[in-house]
Amino acid sequence: MKQYISYLENIRHLSPATVKAYSGDIAEFISFMEESGTSVTNPDRNSGRRYVAHLSKKGFDARSINRKISALRKFYDYKIREKETDFNPFDYVKSQRVDKKLPTFMTDSELKQVDNLAVEKESSHPMLGARDEALFSFLYASGCRISEALSIKVRDLDFGSGQVLITGKGNKQRFVFFGKKTAGILQAYLPLRQQVVTKEGTGTEALFVDYKGNPLTSRGATWILRQYKLNAHIDKNVTLHTFRHTFATHILENGADIRAVQELLGHAGLSTTQIYTHVGIGRLKDIHRATHPHGKLGQKGEENGI
Q1: Domains in the chain, start-ordered, CATH in brackets?
Q2: Element (H, E) at 52
Q3: 209 beta partners
Q4: Among the four 15, 79, 250, 271, which has the fewest Cβ within 10 Å?
Q5: Which ranges of 143-274 would DSSP assign to H, the alpha helix?
Q6: How many CB atoms sit inside 10 A of residue 82's CB?
């Protein structure tokens, strides 16, 4: 397995998080095969199916199972190329059916609530409040993944053009953009950030740092947002990725071309981006029902058999 992990890191240039997920999926499967007395290099035709049944019994949802199937299918494709096995047991396994869930997004009011709390925090913890405001504003303005935002260095920011070159999934680079409002928030945060980095002597170039001047981690950012969610009394499931969903939903609602949104989000295929059009359509239906005479008559018309 070590050779395959090295291949993922050095040839395919997958992110550390993806490599870690693949490693865990493969290790779990190896343990399952050993417990059932079957060799990983000599699986039988039903090994894949038995493992999927095992995962279902353990309570894994369809998305998680599909991710594991994909990881193990690629693992065996590699082993076949390296002539370490004869066939891929996951070629005989169908992906689980997944019900499409519309992405959660934040309203303008909820975004404002979070921003106000960050501003309030600045009075007692100037750098931390300014950092939180800058992070949330940047995530919403750019549509970045949190991993992409946390990899940005101060020198990467181009305030003149309001853009930054980031490295996304599959080591692919793209430009993302931030407007004047976010630029102002970032510029207010940077001197406070530098004071902490200098005081703590970390010398980090990371744009977003913790109270000790070290690069902010994804786990740390997740904890921070959870506190804001609780304090703002937001009941919906808001995560750091929700800012990305909100970015996509709002710009589509305001007339952005879906292919442009695909580029901005760094999606490899258009199908991933199209989920956001369903969110927009749903809201349009609500507006139609609430404002159009025929929309208002919809439910009564159904009762009258119209």
Answers
A1: 2-92 (1.10.150.130), 108-273 (1.10.443.10)
A2: helix 47-57
A3: 215
A4: 271
A5: 146-150, 180-200, 218-231, 240-253, 258-265, 270-273
A6: 11
pLDDT reported for residue 299: 47
pLDDT tier for residue 144 given thresholds of 50, 70 and 90: very high
Give catalytic residue positions. Answer: 145, 169, 241, 244, 267, 276
Q: What residue has token string 């199209």?
A: 274
pLDDT in tens, 63-119: 899 999 999 999 999 999 999 998 899 998 988 887 667 678 899 999 999 999 999
Q: Say if residue 47 is exposed, middle or buried (CB neighbours under 10 Å; 0-12, 13-18, 19+).
A: buried
Sign for the pseudo-dihedral over CA of 67, 147, 218, 252: negative
Question: Rounded to a whole number, what is the distance in angstroms from the first to the last CA of the chain?
Answer: 64
What is the distance, to the nearest Å, from the Cα of residue 195 to the centroid of all Cα atoms in its chain? 31
* Contact (CB, 8 A) for 153 and 207: yes
Q: Residue 301: pLDDT above 60?
A: no
From residue 171, give the alpha-carbon distance in Å to each of 6, 119, 147, 263.
16, 35, 12, 15
Position with higher pLDDT, 168 vs 306: 168
Condensed to tens digits (0 to 9), the pLDDT of residues 21-67 reads 999 999 999 999 999 888 888 888 899 999 999 999 998 988 899 99
Using only C-alpha atoms, what is the Rg of the chain?
24
Between residues 123 and 277, the one the model is more confident about: 123
Place of tokens 């991710």: 67
Based on the number of CB atoms within 10 Å of its own CB, is 277 exposed (0-12), middle (13-18) or buried (19 or more)?
middle
Question: Taking the complete model, does pTM exceed 0.70, yes or no?
Answer: no
- Full 3-state SS string of 104-130: CCCCHHHHHHHHHHHHHHHHHCHHHHH
